[in-house]
Amino acid sequence: MPDVVTPDRLESAVETGLDGRGISGDQALLLMDHAPLSVLCEAASTIRNRSKGRAVSYSRKVFIPLTHLCRDYCGYCTFRADPSPGVRPYMLPDEVLAVAEAGRRAGCKEALFSLGDQPERVFPEARAFLRSMGFDRTLEYLAAMCELVLEKTGLLPHSNPGLMPREDLWRLRETNVSVGLMFEAASTRLLRPGGAHWKAPDKVPLLRLRTIESAGELSMAFTTGILIGIGETNEERVNALLLIRAAHEKYGHIQEVIIQPFRAKPDIRMADSPEPTKADLQRTIAVARLIFGGHVNIQSPPNLLSEDYLELLNAGINDWGGISPVTKDFINPETAWPQIPALAARTASAGFVLRERLAIYPEFSSRPKFVRDRLEPHLQKIRNEDGYARSNQC
User: Fold this and answer.
1) Which long-range contacts (CB under 8 A, 24 or more apart) does 194-200 make?
2) Which of 72, 96, 133, 190 has the smallest number of Cβ neighbours within 10 A?
3) How much is the pTM?
């Protein structure tokens, strides 16, 4: 006989969440499936306000797509590409530096490196390019480009290259104040033929969890999150959030959890798949806030909700993510980021103050084991006493 959903059970789950210490998986699924959205948002906002106050952060970044080659064929991705005649498989160092320098001149402080996962394992063109530059693997080239950008521009690298073995994380730790990998989904069903992660060997949940945990073992500030609307159930969505929380409880290194909605695009395999609704996105954000409590930063990109993005604040987020005044969102190129002054004004209209952060959140930049000695001088140049960015610009 199925469990009976009663008002008392829902109220008890919400009250547990309001304690700020997190809710159980059963409670999270109960709330995801049955709680009124208004009740969830009110509870999530209360927790956020109590722990984060009225500050909502963002990072002024420049987007460096080091390579679009990727061995995965996810059903929702327009970023990845196969080799094409006349198209160089990777950015050259001078091109990387030019983009980073343009970002520095525009006041950026983060260099976000995004790239496909392990293209050299399937594409001879990738292997040939890497050999010509003196490298065997993409992650080695990435580490060299992070070094170049850090030393030549002072921008703080944040790399998001897919799966990262421990030795590569260790190498990136020398130049990256933080790294990231979207966990995306805990469902192995999505790996089956026709699923969102069909023909995507790097999207095996346990492999992605291994990278997240390896970063924790190395005390690296880490950004992760889930992608909703790609065929997962509510239970699988909750399970993904719980696995991220378990890793954080063990290592204390998750600086940010992103709740990102799937967006259909003409040139993807999932072009005809339904997008999650705004209410579904808000519900998932609110439950995530109840799962993680008040101290973990929760983000959802404003450009993926168009003019309605302020309503994400009601669901309990406290960060808008990376916003670039220089480069487009290469992951979702059809959706422009809001202009930073407009973002500041609209955030203020909702009763919040927009604060510029760095690629590493304030609560992590003040913890010595999370910042390598060689990175500290770079941080000192652009970090305020409170850990936010030194610039007074919004």
Assistant:
1) 195/75, 195/231, 196/74, 196/75, 196/76, 196/230, 196/231, 196/270, 197/72, 197/74, 197/75, 197/230, 198/73, 198/75, 199/72, 199/73, 200/72, 200/73, 200/74
2) 133
3) 0.96
Query: Per-residue pLDDT tens for 140-190?
Result: 999 999 999 999 999 999 999 999 999 999 999 999 999 999 999 999 999
List CB contacts of 38: < 8 A, sequence separation 6 or more: none
CB 329 within 8 A of CB 287: no
Name the burial class of residue 216, with classes exposed (0-12), middle (13-18) and buried (19+) by CB atoms within 10 angstroms of its CB: middle
Predicted confidence (pLDDT) per residue in 234-251, tens digit: 999 999 999 999 999 999
- Residue 390 CA, chain-centre distance (Å), reads 23
CB 89 within 8 A of CB 95: no
CA distances 350 to 169, 313, 333, Å, are: 39, 8, 27
**Amino acid in the structure at residue 176:** N
Tokens of 299: 């983000």
**φ/ψ of residue 209, rounded to 5:** -65, -35
The token pair that represents 161 in the structure block: 């290259």
- Kind plus residue range of the DSSP H or E element containing 71: none
Separation of alpha carbons 174 and 375, rounded Å: 8
CA angle 13, 17, 22 (to 5 degrees): 115
Instruction: Give the span between the Cα atoms of 336 and 302, in whole angstroms.
Output: 9
- Name the CATH topology of 7-382: TIM Barrel (3.20.20)
> Structure tokens of 363?
């609560």
**C-alpha atoms less than 13 angstroms from C-alpha of 301 in its C-beta half-sphere:** 19
- How distant, in Å, are the alpha carbons of 89, 300, 319 from that of 361? 33, 16, 10
Q: What are phi and psi of 203, to 5 degrees?
A: -100, 15
Reduced to 3 DSSP states, what percent helix, strand and coil does the chain have, rounded to the nearest 5? 45, 15, 40
Number of H helices, E strands in the chain: 14, 9
The H-or-E segment that residue 63 falls in is strand 55-67
Whole-angstrom Cα distance, residue 104 to residue 337?
A: 18
For the stretch 272-281, contacts whose Cβ atoms lie closer than 8 Å and that sit 24 or more positions apart, written own/partner, are: 273/75, 273/76, 273/229, 273/230, 273/231, 274/229, 275/229, 276/228, 276/229, 278/305, 278/308, 278/311, 279/37, 280/228, 280/229, 281/228, 281/305, 281/312, 281/315
Evaluate whether 97 touches 111 at the Cβ level (below 8 Å): no
